[in-house]
Amino acid sequence: MDLRQWWESLRQRWSRPETLGARGERLAAARYRRAGATILAMNWRAGKDEIDLVALEGRVLVFVEVKTRTAEHGGAGHAAVDERKRTALRRAAKAWLREIGGAPHWRFDIVEVLVCIDGSVRILQHRGEPLFGPRRF
After folding, report:
1. N or C: less crowded end of the chain, CB within 10 Å?
2. Closest Cα to residue 14, out of 121, 109, 110, 123?
3. pLDDT tens digits along 91-113
């Protein structure tokens, strides 16, 4: 199999949105675990809203949105988190916090997972409140 055929098979395998997104979420969760975080939930839903990952880093609760792209389709994953998506994430986070009785320290992260043509994976993490404004709802 030459490089072109290999890339095509990789692209087809990863191009199905549920497969690509789920793989990216697993890779992001593994990265948080390696950094010492505990994953509390994956794909947690509150009505129609979803949080990809909920992690605990020490005493900080982290709500994570994961955006996975192939090198062929690329683009900045964090740019895909528009105002509509941010509103949905805030609603889901509010529901989580209501369910657990609140948390003194929390933040939102966006993790971009890029699958490259050579099969390698690059992960870029955007941490914290600049993406969502003040830490109050």
Report:
1. N
2. 121
3. 999 999 999 888 888 888 988 88
